[in-house]
Amino acid sequence: SPANTTSKYVQSSPYTIDFRCHIEKTLGSRTEQITRVSSSSHPIEIDLVQQDAYIVTFTQQSTHLDRDILINIELSSQRSSTIMAVEPGAIMAAFVPTEEECHQASKNDLTNEFIFVVDCSGSMQDENKIGLARQAMLLFLKSLPVDCHFNIIRFGSEYKTLFNENT
């Protein structure tokens, strides 16, 4: 089977994907220190020719889309805590507070807000992925601090929020 996968659907899939990811090296006016770009799902090549960006492509020319594409971007400790990627039709944002920011927030009388974004698309059907996401959400919800706000946004071909912004 292509790419040494054990997926039962690969052989019936007549199409392949051509993947190209553009990762900018700067955020705002600062240079981010990216220490590593890797993929745990597919063999990739990284083009380092451009000064302002890394260009990531698949090593294999014709790759079947039989599993999620995972690109891991590791940043140095001297970095901004927000990562954003915008592509036509897609956006990814991650905010990872530093330990110092967590301590500072716990000392203030601020109301914490947690927003969970849950993938409920077709790619979550196999291997009980949606069941595992449900279990993780229950764990997260039970671990929320008292007097906080939260919302859950589920997405597939459309998205739906648990709570509307007006409430």
TrEMBL record:
PROSITE patterns found in the cross-reference section: VWFA
Species whose genome carries this gene: Adineta ricciae
Signal peptide as annotated in the record: none
Protein name: VWFA domain-containing protein
Cited Gene3D superfamilies: von Willebrand factor, type A domain
Domain VWFA stretches: 113-167
